[in-house]
């Protein structure tokens, strides 16, 4: 997904190599090219501004250090600023002191929530946890069945309304799932909610009602990196409508430019926690800002 951005940044920084000294004009020219590369990759404007300002300030004020030549110093600064924009430290999942840990997934329809439920469950099972999935998307025909298929593939149980009661109340299902988790000793509950194709008040209200019913330890906003600039406005709408403690980027295997998704952390102030890069249950990992920055800078 970040190949073009990566190529552009690598070539901008490559141009600095071999220069014995960098003037302010060199730094300004480099900053300008980085700015264009970021904008072309769909990185949101406020994020580009913050990034460029950080790089310029630090590059101009940098002491010439013995170990690094000027080009290497700028590369180091660009890398550190990128890690900063992506969130700095890796943000780990917070588990509840008194299980079950409740994770609520929210996001637009098609963002990858149901698939993510299975991925998270499988990943948690691999760490010795005993997760259970909860079907609270009762709007879309087949959503419950789809979660059941995902649960089966991941080898974890799914709590869903009884057959024939497919139009049940998702808030009630969510509430009852906690009793079931305690009874059957599941230490993590992953609640899949209904999304719509676009931001919609009814969807937000329902997600907020489910949130109030289960007091989640984590609310994850799931966003398809392929939706481009809409990723930022959708994130803002979910932040205001439901609130979230972390972000999951999906479809990073796609060929869109992806910069908007990378902007979500800076714009909303909430960390990117996981990344999904394929349809298989294994195509999933914890998001490490430093590794992503290294990948982008080649
Ligand atoms: P939901 O509506 O939010 O529950 O989204 P789904 O989990 O049903 O996913 C929508 C579509 O995206 C499905 O066809 C998934 O197989 C696909 N999908 C989910 N995550 C990824 C991903 O990381 N990469 C790719 N290529 N496809 C994905």
List keywords for this structure.
single chain; 298 residues; alpha/beta; eight-stranded mixed sheet; 11 helices; cytoplasm; GTPase activity; RNA-binding; ribonucleoprotein; Signal recognition particle protein
Structure description:
With 298 residues, the protein is α/β, with parallel strands linked by helices. Helix content is 49%, strand content 13%. The protein has eleven helices and eight strands. It has helices at 3-14, 24-40, 45-61, 70-85, 113-126, 143-154, 170-183, 201-214, 230-241, 259-268, 289-297; strands at residues 101-106, 131-136, 158-159, 188-193, 218-224, 246-250, 272-276, 284-286. It has an eight-stranded mixed beta sheet, with helices on both faces. The protein is elongated. The two termini are 13 Å apart. The relative contact order is 0.17. The model has no long low-confidence stretch (mean pLDDT 92). The structure holds guanosine-5'-diphosphate (GDP). Guanosine-5'-diphosphate (GDP) is lined by residues 107, 109-115, 195, 250-251, 253, 276-279, 283.
Produce a short descriptive summary.
The protein is an alpha/beta fold and 298 residues long. Helix content is 49%, strand content 13%. The model has no long low-confidence stretch (mean pLDDT 92).
């Amino acid at each position: 997904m970040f190949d073009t951005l990566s190529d552009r940044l690598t070539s901008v920084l490559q141009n600095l190599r071999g220069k014995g000294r960098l003037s302010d004009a060199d730094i300004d020219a480099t900053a300008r090219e980085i700015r264009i590369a970021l904008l072309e990759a769909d990185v949101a404007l406020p994020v580009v501004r913050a990034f460029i300002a950080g790089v310029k300030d630090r590059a101009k004020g940098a002491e010439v250090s013995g170990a690094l030549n000027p080009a290497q110093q700028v590369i180091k600064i660009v890398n550190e600023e990128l890690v900063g924009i992506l969130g700095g430290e890796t943000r780990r999942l917070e588990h509840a002191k008194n299980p079950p840990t409740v994770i609520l997934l929210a996001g637009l329809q098609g963002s990858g929530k149901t698939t993510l439920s299975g991925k998270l469950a499988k990943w948690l099972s691999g760490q010795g946890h005993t997760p259970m999935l909860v079907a609270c998307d009762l709007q879309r025909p087949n959503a419950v069945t789809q979660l059941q298929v995902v649960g089966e593939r991941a080898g974890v149980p799914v709590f869903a309304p009884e057959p024939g009661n497919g139009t049940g109340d998702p808030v009630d299902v969510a509430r009852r799932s906690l009793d079931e988790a305690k009874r059957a000793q599941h230490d993590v509950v992953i609640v899949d909610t209904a999304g719509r194709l676009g931001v919609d008040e009814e969807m937000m209200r329902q997600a907020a009602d489910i949130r109030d019913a289960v007091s989640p330890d984590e609310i994850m906003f799931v966003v398809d990196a392929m939706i481009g600039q809409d990723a930022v406005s959708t994130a803002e709408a979910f932040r205001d409508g439901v609130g979230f403690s972390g972000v999951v980027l999906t479809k990073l295997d796609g060929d869109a430019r992806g910069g908007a998704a990378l902007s979500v952390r800076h714009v909303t102030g909430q960390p990117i926690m996981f990344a999904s890069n394929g349809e298989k249950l294994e195509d999933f990992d914890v998001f490490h800002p430093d590794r992503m920055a290294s990948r982008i800078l080649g």
